[in-house]
Amino acid sequence: MQRVYNFSAGPSALPEEVLKKAQSEMLCYGTSGMSVMEMSHRSKDFMSILDSAESSLRELMQVPDNYKVLFLQGGASSQFAMVPLNLMNKSKKADYVNTGAWSKKAIKEAKRYGTVNVIASSEDKTFSYIPELDPATFDKDADYFHITTNNTIYGTRFAELPDTGNVPLVGDMSSDILSKHYDVSKFGLIYAGAQKNLGPAGVTVVIIREDLAGNAMDFTPTMFNYKEHIENGSMYNTPPTFGIYLIGLVLNWLKEQGGVAAIEKTNIDKANTLYNFLDESSLFKSTVAGKDRSVMNIPFVTGNEEIDAKFIKEATAAGFVQLKGHRSVGGMRASIYNAISLEGVQKLVDFMKQFEVANK
Ligand SMILES: *Cc1c(COP(=O)(O)O)cnc(C)c1O
């Protein structure tokens, strides 16, 4: 059996060492005599898996003590509702920046619960850039300010975080959490679906400043109330146990790689390898310019749909898979999350060079 170079946008490649470790513990975790999937979430073994995943995340992201870490279900998409239900509790207003399909969904959901002020958008050019933000347009009264830190579909990211003053910044970090250093204290709340950079689908990580929980709207379902999950240590109901276990393994792997600073450096090398080639190529082009370019998701096109299709077909046959771009952008997209090695990106670029020569 041959493993492929998997450039999927999500669920995405996991480190092979993690999969092997999970395989070795599949039938019997430690001395428990059972798989992690088969154990009570209240058992000592599972409690220590949960505690260690949380402490690894705190260590890697340098999460300050006044922030809580939650492992929830429902995906990042549930957070689109959970954030306003819990945080839109004073002025009932929030500022949003519209940088893509995920921001749009977040905005649509928040509008059910209060006044959404879309202070900037890049929809005019298929979200191919990050709009300039003018702090004079920020609402000082807003209950929070929401951004999507990395736009998975369009391949853009905020090179700098907006300074929102006393208004809590909320970040959908689904596709770039742990890819680079973020100062958690700059955020009121961070959320991320696990299936891009953290582990398998089915777990959503939430990092919330303590004081922001506890004022949810009256009709908030219990399962959507951060306070309930905080008070119960992510165990209000059965948490996604196997997913949390895998996240723990991914975080241990990341520590072995040298932590966030080391992976950030590798991620920049990987992205530069691909962007440098795209900028020189006479066949392939990046769809995003300058400082807004994502380090995680890199869309590219040839400008000819037939050649795009031929490229995807031949790349797949050569073991470079899930390179088809999102239908709203077309062409190709290489998602190069933490688990993708520099060597994998170099091999892809070598293949693209050969394809370019053969198809000039
Ligand atoms: C994938 C993704 C989502 C959706 O995540 P689900 O877990 O499927 O709900 C939301 N935001 C961003 C930035 C994403 O990349």
Q: Which sequence of strands runs across the widest sheet? A: 2-10-9-8-5-3-4
**Main β-sheet description:** 7 strands, mixed
- Give the H and E element order: EHHEHEHEEEEEEEHHHEEHEEH
Report the C-alpha radius of gyration, rounded.
21 Å
What's the total count of β strands? 14
Global geometry: globular
Number of helices: 9
Unreliable stretches (pLDDT < 50, length at least 5) are none
Reported CATH architecture of the largest domain: 3-Layer(aba) Sandwich
* Ligands bound to this protein structure: pyridoxal-5'-phosphate
Beta-strand level of the residues, as a percent range? 15-25%
Q: Which structural class should the secondary elements be placed in? A: alpha/beta
Number of domains: 2
The named CATH superfamily of the largest domain: Type I PLP-dependent aspartate aminotransferase-like (Major domain)
Distance between the termini: 34 Å
Enzyme class: transferase
EC number: 2.6.1.52
Pfam family, one: Aminotran_5
GO molecular function: O-phospho-L-serine:2-oxoglutarate aminotransferase activity
Description:
Belongs to the class-V pyridoxal-phosphate-dependent aminotransferase family. SerC subfamily. This protein has 2 domains: 16-256, Type I PLP-dependent aspartate aminotransferase-like (Major domain) (Aspartate Aminotransferase, domain 2), CATH 3.40.640.10; 258-358, Aspartate Aminotransferase, domain 1. 34% of the residues lie in helices and 16% in strands. The protein has helices spanning 16-24, 44-61, 75-87, 101-110, 226-231, 241-256, 259-280, 305-317, 342-358, and strands at 5-6, 67-72, 93-98, 115-121, 144-148, 150-151, 156-157, 169-172, 189-193, 204-209, 285-286, 297-301, 320-321, 332-335. The chain has a 7-stranded mixed sheet with strand order 2-10-9-8-5-3-4, with helices on both faces. Strands 11-12-14 form a 3-stranded antiparallel sheet. The model has no long low-confidence stretch (mean pLDDT 97). Bound molecules: pyridoxal-5'-phosphate. Pyridoxal-5'-phosphate binds at residues 10, 75-77, 102, 148, 152, 172, 174-175, 193, 196.
